[in-house]
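Tokens in:
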């Protein structure tokens, strides 16, 4: 039996049936796999997560009742290999699936998969209706309706279809450890026009420069947050929700490692990630502190900063390429809960911005209640702040995540 298939099944069970996150599971369990095995397991896990509804639609009519969750996931994974990934390896896929499941389910799994092979893949419906688009893209209908109301029907369709694409790996330079001249010595790598994003060839995840802190994996949309804040050398910066530290280290680089950054997070174990990132990147101006951003003005009473970054917790609807499992747990009620938390963070962090200072609010989601409507409500209650710029970045507009960024200044 192919033990790599067993490992992929274990991962999918942990994510789909036990509530774990794909990236964390792969980080924890991928160390026992070779690079080739890890690439295959990663491809299967994310492929099943992105296409889970079409996969189940292929076999659901062949069983009287949906089997227990682990067997349903095994069928999903097998269908993904048969119809999306490993065409030509049908015998091995079916054989391994039968071997993986308990004796009482072997007949069911064998019969379903062999019927699928005889029938072949059922064509998916054209995604003309909301219901059919939900099936094709594995997005809940209520979310598609929300995007339609917020951004229009055409944009809603483009976002949902873009979420099916494999997530791009974006890289930025760390000028604290890598000069632009040294980067120019690699003819297959080049800085893009923004001066931070690197156009790369090959796999930057395995490049030695990553471990050395010379480059940082960071989505190109995420990079825009620090650029909007625009910190200068010798500024004082408050990064309220800093973990895992990717944006924080970019801020330090923009400041030429001069000044100070107070990087905070609610959880100490998350701050450890910020500290590791700072050490790897050579960012010595970063200090960390455990802090509840929704009570920041009380916990940091008397302090003010030149720049305040609020990269707040959000529903994550802009990063579904990287985290498709978000859709498994998201509900309309959970969106309302996160909106209230964001409002509290804005209200209690805003006093930490000096008169004349800059406040940036950002999310990696596509939900106007969390984005421009959140900022508009804040500005209505806080006339001492003025909106200078705002931007919504959509995943269908290039190899990037969806983000919202608003830049405000506090009147002097």
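Residues out:
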């Amino acid at each position: 039996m192919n033990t790599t298939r067993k490992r992929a099944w274990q991962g999918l069970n942990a994510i789909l049936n036990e509530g774990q996150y794909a990236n964390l599971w792969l980080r924890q369990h991928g160390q026992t796999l070779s690079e080739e095995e890890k690439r295959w397991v990663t491809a299967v896990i994310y492929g099943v997560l992105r296409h889970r509804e079409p996969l189940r639609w292929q076999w659901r009519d062949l069983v009287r009742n949906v089997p227990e969750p682990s067997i349903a996931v095994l069928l999903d994974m097998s269908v993904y290999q048969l119809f999306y990934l490993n065409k030509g390896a049908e015998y091995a896929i079916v054989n391994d699936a039968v071997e993986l499941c308990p004796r009482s389910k072997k007949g069911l799994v064998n019969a379903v998969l062999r019927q699928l092979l005889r029938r072949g893949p059922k064509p998916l419906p054209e995604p003309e209706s909301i219901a059919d688009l939900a099936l094709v893209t594995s997005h809940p209908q209520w979310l598609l309706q929300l995007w339609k109301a917020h951004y229009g029907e055409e944009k809603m369709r483009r976002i949902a279809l873009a979420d099916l694409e494999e997530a791009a790996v974006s890289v930025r330079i760390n000028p604290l450890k890598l000069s632009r001249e040294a980067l120019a010595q690699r003819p297959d790598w080049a800085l893009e026009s923004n001066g931070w994003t690197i156009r790369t060839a090959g796999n930057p995840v395995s490049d030695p420069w990553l471990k050395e802190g010379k480059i940082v994996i960071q989505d190109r949309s995420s990079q825009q947050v620090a650029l909007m804040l625009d910190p200068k050398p010798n500024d004082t910066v408050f990064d309220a929700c800093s973990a895992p530290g990717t944006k924080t280290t970019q801020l330090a680089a923009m400041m030429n490692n001069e000044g100070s950054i107070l990087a905070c997070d609610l959880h100490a174990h998350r701050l450890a990630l910020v500290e590791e990132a700072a050490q790897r990147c050579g960012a010595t101006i970063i200090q960390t502190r455990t802090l509840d951003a929704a009570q920041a003005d009380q916990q940091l009473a008397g302090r003010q900063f030149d720049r305040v970054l609020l990269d707040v917790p959000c529903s994550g609807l802009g990063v579904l390429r990287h985290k498709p499992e978000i859709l498994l747990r998201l509900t309309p009620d959970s969106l309302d809960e996160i909106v209230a938390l964001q409002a509290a963070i804005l209200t209690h962090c805003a006093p930490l911005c000096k008169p004349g200072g800059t406040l940036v609010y950002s999310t990696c989601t596509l939900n106007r209640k969390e984005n421009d409507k959140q900022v508009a409500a804040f500005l209505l209650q806080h006339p001492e702040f003025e909106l200078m710029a705002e931007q919504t970045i959509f995943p269908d507009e290039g190899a990037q995540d969806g983000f919202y960024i608003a830049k405000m200044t506090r009147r002097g």
